[in-house]
Amino acid sequence: MDVVLRNLPFLLKGTFPDGPLGGLALTLYLSLIVGAASLCTGILFALATLIPYRPLRWLARGGSMLIRGVPSLAFLFWMYFLIPRLLQINLSPLQSAGLALMLYHGAYMGEDIRGGIQAVAKGQWEAARASGLGFLSMMRHVILPQAIRAVIPALVNRFVNLFMYTSIVSVLGILEFTRASILVNNRELIYSLQIFGFVGLVYFSFCYLISLGGRYLERRWSWAPKITTLQNAT
Amino acid sequence: MRPNIDWSFIVSARVLDALAQGLKVTLTVVLVAGLLAILIGSAVALLQVSSHRAAQRAGRIYVALFRNIPLLILLFFFYFGLPTLLPRSHYPLVYSDHYEIQIAIIAVTLVSAAFIAEVIRGGIETIVVGQLESALATGLSRRQGLQYVVLPQLGPTVLPGLSNEAINIVKNSSFAMTIGVTELIWQAQQIEADTFRGFEAMTAVTLVFLLLNGTIFVTFRVLEYALRAK
To answer: Which of left, alpha, beta for B12 (phi over 0: left; psi -120 to 50: alpha)?
Structure first.
């Protein structure tokens, strides 16, 4: 435990006062920004895969399938190496990692939200159409509020995933929590068990908090009896 | 900086050779981990829907634990952390004989089993709970109800989720590169390091992954339709 305490400032905020923000603080910062951005991307993806204009719809479906069919590591390397070179722009590792995570999780959230949209009762669609709403205003005022509410448990799971998978940006050398712990491990050499145990515990606590929120929402919005409460007839 | 990309490099012997080697390792990890994960996952799901409090709790703890720790951290914990429990003299013994592949399989299995357990639990819980109620009402025991009424109907409802998890296992297997498992993405990185032809190598690897995942996707779709048609 001593080794963790000794390196705690570095694990929590990286080299912050003297250098860029890092460690757990960077992980939290990255997940907040990417979380908000990928929710927006997800909604856009969901709308684009349902838009009544065929070329755009197929483009969105194809793109979403392509993104979801590739390991996140491969997608990360793609964004990091290829996009700056193809578009002739400069992206810092953090920027390309943020973009990659946003698109990657956005595609998944898009799938979840699309499921929710398609589960909205048919009468709602017909009523919205009948009152003369166009595609976008129908989505915004009638369908999306119901759809998002219905898929909140799925979205919460996605946010847990997003938080955990910010750890993969460590392979680009970004000094977030996982990378910081690898550096500490390399420096201390013989305390791997304690260091990675502590890091696992921290990730676990944050994710568990998000899951608890999810379970709470799930309970609040579900009406079906739980299977575990059914007993043998006596 | 000019994009000078040589697409013919994708079919060069260097890349094809690396792809073959990487694919072998990736498939080993995926197949073994997939098989173990479905076994452990089903067991955990059954624990979660059991009527014993302790069993439910054990299942929930398992899922909470392995769904909430990043795979990367698990890999590092097992790979770097566990051997430090052994005396120093055992190190060469531990790290010989492809310790990294075994660790990769174990970590991917544990994580995927948690997700598979949730998929199966979701299938049992939300879809057919009314069926179990009727089974109990007709005088079957809980066990009989689960075995003869609920489980046979589970196929079509959990297959889409299982197909997602199968694809996730393929994708998660790539994390093993971080502890030195020579799978597909590791091979691409190696080619990048040797020849600076990282794009071409990564394109080739991406295509292989898309092919693998496409195969899984289609297989599960066919299975789903076959089960529905019955």
So the answer is: beta
